[in-house]
Task: inverse folding
């Protein structure tokens, strides 16, 4: 649907600010919120209170089992656990690794998805269909398998080394490196990005592109001034979801990354299970959450800003 | 009519195949500088395909396109001296009216002040200065069309192309807008080609009309010539109303035959008394049409419609109907007028 | 849609662009296809020693061996039972909400949508760790219900946002025409709204199924060691069984996704997805 039709339909379809508030609607919308509230909201709340030192109530069991729990000792809350984590020498390395991997992976995912999306929209043809279909394959594959496949491929006995061997080059395996984690993260994030970006470009009517041609614009100019702005929302969605996803990822860095420094996802699990330090684990989870929220807020802001501009809000 | 100064538009032997089908075959057209020409026909006749070949969005299989004397057949739409107004206006929703219109100038890397001057000029021309900072979604359909027009005009094109400009407007607005377009075109003197399926529209604003059918131009003449002497049955049917009777026409009466006789309702008259050449007829139906009446007459040799505005009969009246002009077609082509 | 009629006439003749395209394609092919083919081929390989290009022989033995191991077979059964249940549960919970958010205005509508999105921002692995606390309290650790809940959590965003966009895209005038013709509200919903929104709903169901089927982290934390699904079994077998077994299991795990996405392909790539992820 073209943007204007969608707007039209959107305006027709559901209540704007001035229509009556529906009680039925509220109750219909409640179940998923309740489920999320109980099974995500509540644990997050519990975890937050644990992180600031609340060791009683529902947190009692875990406080007894875990080590190095910092209680709040009568004060309203304590930030000792946070101080511990940040002071930990591993923290800085993990933070750097997580941020670098997330941003580099996001940048490349954007480059690839926009590239393929533009190719598909402007040129079509066999090559772009093949590339699009290929980039979607990771969608079918569970992350566990993808990690394993990548691990063996880039590993000491993998095809990657095999190919180079036949040229007489002895390349070291790239597993257990940040590079492998980046490649793996790109691999798993690509399908969603491709879907979003290609569908974003697809919804640009031909006439808008032809009008720019008719006005004298070159290909690059058309991409820069018409196509990218019109596909901005999907692109921002991709950037947001990808960076948040990679930020908190576990399986890929677990299989493909080094032991130290590693990404927060792995560290969180290590602290919770292997080291039995659950409080520090949730502290790290919240630090990651804070970063992810920052990204999420910019997504929401961008969404509302574009809705305002195109007259939807 | 040959192209004198080598300006305007010339299409030579164009041939276009789309989806395996031959849409256009050996199309020739010459449009003089400053002329307003319509490509008129039903959907599927190839008029939009032709327009897109003029604009450069389609490259013909063979044949040539000359714009302002230059062979532009192989050149893409970016570099052609043509500007197009798209059917759905194709305004960029993320840009203001000003930015939409300024776009072609920005592409040409004009200075900011120069751009501002030109855009203001052309927005004044189409009467949209008060909306220059609005977004397309905030203005009406008619206003959007004017923006699209402004965007085309700001390029100072040698040839202006309009793709069904009035089809998205409501009836009343259509009449006003088409007159505005005509006035603007006359004032600026830009060679213009309009694609339309509405014969009313074509007849009222064009210098000449190319009536198209199945990828061919059946006739290319002024509106009056098309109306008075349509060269083919198809054109006669398409332009204006027509009574079609199969038979043989002689002295105002129709006998058995295989010619197709076309009679315009304005050329059918009804009277109570017999006049030379008339045949007995009864009125079967009278339909009021505003400033005239459509009267259905039954003669013994044919059933005819007439447009009558004074002394209008009533259904059931008996009298005489005579024909003042008939177009006779054989194998689709005009053989004689009587 | 305007686009599928005629392709655009945009060509660049520059060699540079063509070269970039070629390099890009090769890179993408290596990056994506390479590891998959590598693993897939292993499923049929007798033995494959570095650094040869080909395995020593081809066989289907490994497929048979996988089906002989009861633990693996039970994991397959669990996956095939649990995933559809997750989709159904998710649909029951979320579809009414999807319809409501598309057609009604109610208190907190936008906030609900945003909260759903925000819940995705919390790192999943951290979440599962904290859910464990609640689960111990509710006695849900190691139970099928516990696994189902954990998987449903991840599908909520698919099952709400995408169908919401699908419902919103049904023009109200069509519903009104049906009411005018005499149909009851429910009949209108069943025959018009639901019908037209079905592609979007199916897309959401397919994505939810694949999510549930492939979900490993939460299921592992909550289900192991009593319940294994195919992905969590992978965690276990990866170390203890030879690569070929992992490869076979990988292929088996991939089949449902391939089938489902193949069926829904037209709709997923058609633009349903982008529409779904905007807050309207």
Result:
């Amino acid at each position: 649907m073209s943007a204007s039709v969608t707007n039209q339909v959107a305006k027709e379809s559901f209540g704007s600010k001035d229509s009556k508030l529906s009680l039925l609607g509220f109750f219909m919308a409640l179940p998923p919120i309740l489920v999320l509230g109980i099974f995500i909201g509540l644990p997050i709340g519990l975890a937050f209170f644990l992180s600031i030192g609340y060791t009683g109530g529902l947190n009692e069991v875990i406080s007894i089992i875990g080590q190095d729990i910092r209680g709040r000792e009568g004060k309203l809350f304590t930030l000792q656990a946070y101080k511990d984590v940040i002071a930990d020498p591993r923290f800085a390395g993990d933070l750097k690794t997580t941020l670098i991997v997330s941003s580099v992976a996001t940048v490349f995912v954007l480059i690839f998805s926009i590239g393929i999306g533009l190719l598909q929209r402007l040129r079509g043809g066999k090559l772009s269909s093949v590339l699009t279909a290929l980039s979607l394959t990771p969608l079918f594959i569970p992350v566990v398998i993808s990690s394993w496949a990548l691990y063996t491929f880039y590993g000491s006995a993998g095809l990657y080394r095999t190919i180079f061997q036949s040229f007489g080059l002895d390349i070291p395996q790239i597993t257990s490196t940040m590079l492998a984690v980046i490649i793996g993260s790109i691999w798993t994030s690509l399908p969603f990005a491709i879907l979003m970006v290609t569908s974003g470009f697809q919804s640009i009517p031909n006439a808008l592109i032809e009008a720019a041609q008719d006005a004298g614009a070159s290909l690059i100019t058309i991409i820069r001034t018409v196509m990218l702005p019109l596909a901005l929302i999907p692109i921002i969605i991709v950037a947001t979801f990808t960076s948040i996803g990679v930020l908190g990822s576990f399986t890929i860095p677990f299989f493909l990354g080094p032991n130290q420094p590693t990404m927060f996802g792995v560290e969180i699990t290590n602290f919770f299970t292997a080291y039995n330090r659950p409080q520090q684990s949730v502290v790290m989870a919240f630090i990651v959450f804070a970063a992810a929220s920052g990204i999420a807020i910019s997504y929401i802001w961008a969404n509302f800003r574009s809705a305002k501009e195109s007259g939807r809000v | 009519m040959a192209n004198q100064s080598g300006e305007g538009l010339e299409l030579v032997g164009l041939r276009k195949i789309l989806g395996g089908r031959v849409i256009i075959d050996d199309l020739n057209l010459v449009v003089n500088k400053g002329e307003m020409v319509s490509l008129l026909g039903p959907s599927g006749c190839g008029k939009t395909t032709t327009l897109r070949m003029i604009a450069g969005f389609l490259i013909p299989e063979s044949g040539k396109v000359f714009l302002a004397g230059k062979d532009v057949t192989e050149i893409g739409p970016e570099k052609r001296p043509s500007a197009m107004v798209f059917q759905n206006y194709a305004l960029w929703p993320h840009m203001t009216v000003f930015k939409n219109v300024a776009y072609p100038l920005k592409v040409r890397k004009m200075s900011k002040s120069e751009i501002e001057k030109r855009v203001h000029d052309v927005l004044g021309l189409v009467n949209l200065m008060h909306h220059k900072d609005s977004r397309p979604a905030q203005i009406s359909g008619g206003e959007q069309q004017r923006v699209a027009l402004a965007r085309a005009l700001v390029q100072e094109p040698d040839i202006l192309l309009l793709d069904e400009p009035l089809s998205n407007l409501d009836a009343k607005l259509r009449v006003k807008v088409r007159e505005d377009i005509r006035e603007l075109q006359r004032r600026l003197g830009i060679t213009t080609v309009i694609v339309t399926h509405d014969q009313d529209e074509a007849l009222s604003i064009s210098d000449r009309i190319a009536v198209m059918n199945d990828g061919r131009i059946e006739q290319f003449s002024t509106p009056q010539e098309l109306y008075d002497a349509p060269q083919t049955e198809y054109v006669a049917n398409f332009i204006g109303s027509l009574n079609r009777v199969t038979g043989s026409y002689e002295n105002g009466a129709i006998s058995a035959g295989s010619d197709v006789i076309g009679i315009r309702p304005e050329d059918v008259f009804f009277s109570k008394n017999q006049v030379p050449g008339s045949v007995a007829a009864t009125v079967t139906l009278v339909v009021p049409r505003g400033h005239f009446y459509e009267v259905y007459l039954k003669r013994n040799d044919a059933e005819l419609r007439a447009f009558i505005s004074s002394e209008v009969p009533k259904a059931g009246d008996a009298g005489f109907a005579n024909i003042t002009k008939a177009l006779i077609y054989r194998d689709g082509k005009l053989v004689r007028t009587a | 849609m305007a686009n599928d009629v005629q392709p655009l006439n945009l060509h660049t003749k520059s060699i540079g662009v063509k070269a970039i395209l070629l390099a890009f394609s090769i890179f993408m092919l290596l990056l994506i296809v390479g590891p998959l083919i590598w693993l897939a081929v292993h499923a049929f390989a007798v033995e494959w020693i570095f650094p040869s290009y080909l395995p020593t022989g081809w066989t289907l033995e490994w497929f048979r061996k996988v089906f002989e191991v009861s633990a693996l077979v039970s994991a397959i059964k669990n996956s095939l039972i649990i995933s559809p249940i997750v989709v159904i549960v998710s649909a029951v919970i979320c579809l009414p909400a999807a319809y409501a958010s598309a057609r009604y205005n109610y208190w907190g509508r936008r906030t609900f949508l945003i909260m759903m999105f925000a819940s995705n921002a919390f790192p999943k692995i951290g979440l599962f760790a904290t859910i464990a606390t609640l689960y111990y309290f509710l006695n849900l650790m190691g139970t099928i219900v516990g696994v189902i809940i954990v998987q449903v959590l991840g599908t909520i965003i698919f099952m709400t946002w995408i169908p919401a966009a699908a419902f919103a895209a049904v023009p109200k005038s069509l519903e009104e025409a049906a009411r005018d013709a005499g149909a009851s509200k429910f009949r209108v919903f069943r025959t018009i709204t639901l019908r037209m929104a079905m592609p979007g709903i199916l897309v959401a169901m397919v994505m939810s199924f694949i999510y549930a089927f492939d979900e490993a982290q939460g299921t592992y934390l909550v289900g192991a060691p009593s319940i294994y699904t195919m992905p969590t079994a992978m965690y276990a077998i990866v170390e203890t069984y030879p690569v070929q077994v992992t490869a076979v299991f990988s292929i088996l795990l991939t089949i449902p996704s391939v089938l489902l996405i193949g069926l829904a392909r037209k709709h997923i790539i058609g633009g349903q997805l982008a529409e779904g992820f905007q807050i309207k």
